[in-house]
Amino acid sequence: MVAALRLATVATFVLGVLALALPGHPGEVAARAMVIVLVSTPLARVGWLTTRWILRRDWRFAAAGTTLLVVVALGLLAH
Amino acid sequence: MSADALPPLVVLAALGAVTAGVGAIGGVGGAILLVPGLVLLGVEPLVAAPLGLLLVAAGSLAAAPAQLAEGLVHHRLGVTLEIAGSAGVILGALVSDALPGPVLARLLGLVTIATALAGSRRKGTRNRPRAAFAHEAPGEWPGTLGGSYRLDGEIVPYSARRLPLGLLAVLGSGVVSGVSGVGGGFIKTPTMSEIMHVPVKVAAATTTFTVAVTAAAGLIVYGGQGRIDVEAGAAVVVGGLAGGTVGALVQRRLRPGTVRGVLSAVLVVIGLSLVVRG
């Protein structure tokens, strides 16, 4: 997970620089990709933790992780 | 400048760098300086808040590898508390869309002042090393809200208490995040350390993990409301990552107490300006 988080940090920075350096549509695409990395990385981390807890039969916290992802998903529907 | 017009990208990048850098030195998130700063420059709070959460997300991402490697994050505690935190930020983001700009600005001012006051921490160590745990590897205990961490070469066990009260406080911090665009760490860390009796180092590292999820949940709602200026966000994030890195390096050479004192004074001035101006 440490390596994946470092990679996500570098990807965020590179996409951010591309967003500022590239004109017009390519720059906007890079900016949107940067936002997607920032939003999806912590959620992927929770998903990975929840999966690990399921595999280790840590049911209480597997349920907590699942509940958290459901709550965040409700934000997609709420507005 | 019109009410919601943003400063030029180079100014946004510089603001991101300075606020993240100063925040790293003073032990607060950069958003608590960035968002009020943008509002004082004439940016509408509804536009400034998403930029704050982007800075929170970037800062948390950058800090995560080191904290993970040190074994300080209690993921089970963080995920459990964050159920309330994410619910709060979604609620706050939805409510903020309906509030007038001056009301949001005043709320932001109060949050800024509260952050300054929260800077004075309880002194002393509550959790003590125990010889029985000397040979245990530090980390969280499976299936529980307890764990152990290494302090000055010794292993210190701990167990989080008063979960219902902790959930309530984190729900409140989530609402604050959704309304104002700050990370809410100034509520979450003391909640874990003072109310739930989790060691401060573990509380701070776990907060860094949870604010990223809070920011993600808030940004999802902001995105649906069409409030994220992605180009401005890129400027803030690039500046913030650079400034935060420099700030973390400089922090080792400065006395944290002095920096925190100056930072608290600046936050009070900014907060009062927002409350008065609206």
Description:
The complex is a heterodimer of chains A (79) and B (278). With 79 residues, chain A is an all-alpha fold. Chain A has three helices and no strands. The longest helix of chain A has 32 residues, at 24-55. The model of chain A has no long low-confidence stretch (mean pLDDT 95). Chain B is mainly alpha-helical and 278 residues long. In chain B, strand 2 (146-151) and strand 3 form a beta hairpin. The mean pLDDT of chain B is 86. Chains A and B meet through helix 1, helix 2 and helix 3 of A and helix 3, helix 4, helix 8 and helix 9 of B.
In short:
The complex is a heterodimer of chains A (79) and B (278). Chain A is mostly helical. Chain A has helices at residues 2-21, 24-55, 59-78.
State the order of secondary-structure elements of chain A, H for helix, E for strand.
HHH
**Spatial shape of chain B:** globular
Number of helices of chain B: 10
What assembly state would you assign to the polypeptide chains in this entry?
heterodimer
Radius of gyration of chain B: 18 Å
Point out poorly predicted stretches of chain B: none
Side by side, the strands of the main sheet of chain B go 1-2-3
Structural class of chain A: mainly alpha
Q: How much β-strand is present in the residues of chain A?
A: under 5%
Helix content of chain B: 55-70%
Hey, which two chains have the biggest interface?
A-B, 46 and 48 residues
Helix/strand order of chain B: HHHHHEEEHHHHH
Total of helices of chain A: 3
By DSSP, the count of extended strands of chain B is 3
DSSP summary, beta strand count of chain A: 0
